[in-house]
Structures are given as C-alpha cells and as structure tokens.
Amino acid sequence: MLSGNNIAIIGTGTMGRGLAERLSQSYNLFLYDHHYDKALSLEQKGFGKACPDLKTAIDNADIVILAIKPQSLKEAAPLIGSLLTEQTLISLLAGTTINTLKTYFPNTRIIRMMPNLAITKGEGLVGLTPDSKLSENEIMQLLSLSDPLGKVFWLSEEKINAFTALGGSGPAFVLVMIESMVEAGIAMGFNAKDSEQIVKQMVKGSLCLLENSDKHPGEIKWQISSPAGTTIAGLLALEDLNVRSGIINVFLACFERTNELSSD
Ligand SMILES: NC(=O)C1=CN([C@@H]2O[C@H](COP(=O)(O)OP(=O)(O)OC[C@H]3O[C@@H](n4cnc5c(N)ncnc54)[C@H](O)[C@@H]3O)[C@@H](O)[C@H]2O)C=CC1
Ligand SMILES: O=C(O)[C@@H]1CCC=N1
User: Fold this and answer.
1) For residue 18, which of 40, 93, 140, 215 sits 20 to 30 Å off, Cα-Cα?
2) Does domain 6-155 have CATH number 3.40.50.720?
C-alpha cells in the first residue's frame, strides 16, 4: 500500500515546504495548500506540482502527507476523508493520535511521522509510528522516503509525545540556548557576528567531542574543568542557578502540552 512514487502533501507551510524540497528529487509531488500561492511558489522552484484543489492532489497520490496544524484537522478531515481511496496517510500532526485519525479516516492505512525542522537540511529526526505491523517491503518504502530527511526512529505510540518534545520541539530550545550564549559573548565585549561564529563552532565542537568518544558527557566536562580553574567556576554558577532543572522542566512543559493536544 506504500508503493508508488506519487506523494500528495497537504499543507505547504514550514514542514510541507521542507518535505517538498527534500523529496522532490525522488518522488512526484502533488502540492495542495488552501492558500494556493504557497503551493504555486514551490512549483515555480521545481519542488512539485501545485494542485488547485484537494481532489487533484489526492487522486494523483499513492501516499498522502498531512502537514496542516492539529487545530485544522477537524475542518479539513471530512473532505480529505471523502477523497481517500487506497492511499496511505502519513500524519505530521503533533499530539494527534492514531485513534483520533481513525475516527476521520477509518479505512485508511495511517503512519504518524514526527520530524523536526532540521529535515529541511537532511539532518533531522524522523519518528515513525505505524497503525499496525508493517511488511518488510513497507518498512523499506518508509525508510527510503525518510532517508533524505534524517535519522529514523521507530516508536510505539506511547513514546511519540515524548519524542515530539525532545526531538520535534527540541531545536527551538537549543537555539534559545545558543542565542543566550551569543548574548553572553556580546556582554563580554565581542560584536554579535564574532560572538555567533565563536559560539557556533564551540557548539559544533562540543557535539563532535561527544559523538567521537564513548565517554559520558560528564566525563568530557571534567576533562575541560581544570582544578580551581575557569570552567568549574561557571559550572558552580550553573548549578546555583538550577539550569539543569530549568532545562528538564522546559521539556516537561512541552511534553505536557503535547499530551493535552492528544486529549483534545
Ligand atoms: N514546525 C515544526 O518544526 C514541526 C511541525 N510539526 C507538525 O507539522 C504540521 C505542520 O506544521 P507547520 O508546517 O509548522 O505549520 P504551518 O502553519 O507552517 O503550515 C500549515 C499549512 O497548512 C495550510 N493549511 C491549513 N489548513 C489547510 C487545509 N484545510 N487544507 C490545506 N492546507 C491547509 C496552511 O495554509 C499552512 O500553509 C503540524 O501538525 C505540526 O504539529 C511536526 C514537527 C515539527
Ligand atoms: O510546536 C509544535 O506544536 C510543533 C510540534 C513539534 C515542533 N513544532
């Protein structure tokens, strides 16, 4: 059911556009947005065919990717449901459960996909939760679809809200931390451009250290911390300010909101 090279993307906002850019080299894309100009501007850049109506997009597709906001589902679902025949539906909707999707699309094969914005650069995360067991062939199809997007994680549905917080929303929190570090550089006398360059390379290097060793992050942190040196002074302030607890609570607030969306 997942076979075929024709994909409809419904909703060509941030994620729909990102998917179109990454998938257009390998698939025939049919793009639909209720703001037609958004789909058209993607067609003009060579990222697929803009469809003037939903029927054209879905009729042409083997797979339909739903990339509208969860809050738009109620309004959009009846028409989409009336047009689906044999297609598989891939839903990006944060928090929207398979059970909820099944109430709108009872006879449709459904896969929940939770990406993050870094898929637009091929360095994203892609969480996948199918509505039932997939065949070897279907797994291969989904892997080849996800391959241009980033690293795939197969998830049971009970884990997808946590994955949404950690992997889906996570880049926003990392970017706030980076922004704050750049501002620390400005506070210490660097201009913004220099500070940003220093911070970006420092963050990249930190990840590289972690990825190229089997050490725990805390052990690497100790390698950086000289006795009575500069790093331990900063680490003490970090603990006094409850930064770790703050970060954990940021993710838990995000998780809680995802759970709320699941119960809407
Ligand atoms: N932005 C992100 O980083 C991530 C978003 N998601 C999920 O992806 C989905 C899309 O999010 P974004 O792209 O950020 O939203 P967006 O607001 O940028 O894009 C949604 C698009 O859907 C269109 N749309 C709304 N109702 C429609 C309808 N009935 N028919 C056709 N088009 C319609 C809008 O015009 C808009 O272009 C959401 O469900 C979100 O939970 C998942 C992971 C990451
Ligand atoms: O903020 C949101 O609801 C979406 C889901 C994950 C990232 N953005």
Assistant:
1) 140
2) yes
pLDDT digits (tens, 9 = 90+) for 173-209: 999 999 999 999 999 999 999 999 999 999 999 999 9
User: Which CATH architecture does the domain made up of 164-263 adopt?
Assistant: Orthogonal Bundle (1.10)
Q: What is the ipTM of this complex?
A: 0.99
Q: What is the pLDDT of residues 112-122, one digit of tens each?
A: 999 999 999 99
Rounded to the nearest whole angstrom, what is the distance from the C-alpha of residue 164 to the centroid of ligand 1?
15
Tell which one of 69, 117, 169, 260 to mutate to probe ligand 2, the residue whose CB is within 8 A of the most ligand atoms. Answer: 169
Residues near ligand 2 (Cβ within 6 A) = 94, 164, 168-169
**Contact between residue 55 and residue 83 where contact means Cβ atoms under 8 Å apart:** yes
What is the pTM assigned to this prediction? 0.96
- The structure tokens listed for 251 are 């993710």
Token reading at 135: 């065949």
Q: What is residue 110's three-state secondary structure?
A: strand
